[in-house]
Amino acid sequence: MDVKQDIRIEGGDWGQMHVSKGDHIRITALEGPQVADLWAFDDRDSAIFLSAEHTRSTLEKLMPAVGDALYSNRRHPMLTVVEDTSPGTHDFLMSACDPRRYEILGHQGYHKSCAENLCKAMDAAGAIAHELPSPFNTFQNVEVRADASITIIPPKVEAGQYIEMRVESDLLIIVSACPMDIAMTNGPDGKTRPIRLECLS
Ligand SMILES: [Zn+2]
Asked: 165 CA distance to ligand 1 centroid (A)?
């Protein structure tokens, strides 16, 4: 496949692209552990979007793997995972980080967040944000315990590893290289790193 679009997203920033049915998108952790929040919206109707709860209930699992589709809030497949060179640890349970999350963690003043990045990307794309869906948190490592408690632990993804998905309908794709530098989301060193977002066709 040829690279049709190629965006480098610095740690804490966002990128967006329009993709067509049959394209592939590839998300790469360029320089080491970094979570990339992924949203997908129907390109003609942003009220139709990638839905964590519809995907979990359709797949009957917490997290999609190679061969699994990711479903919309109308339960149609939007993306299908075709390759994953990372350890396959992703998260479809947690909401995006937002200003209140940083406040709860003790941060004072402004902090970038994935929720704000989503809003900026929707504005840039000229799309209406009917609501802020929960993202597919690629490379995020969430431990689910037998007592049903959950904790974010450092990601396992290493530099150069990627997840690739086939696009099942025309979509607006938005990715936020999560700005979290307090919780373990991006690892214990409190650093954020760049993400590469490619469209292949
Ligand atoms: Zn985030």
From this structure: 21
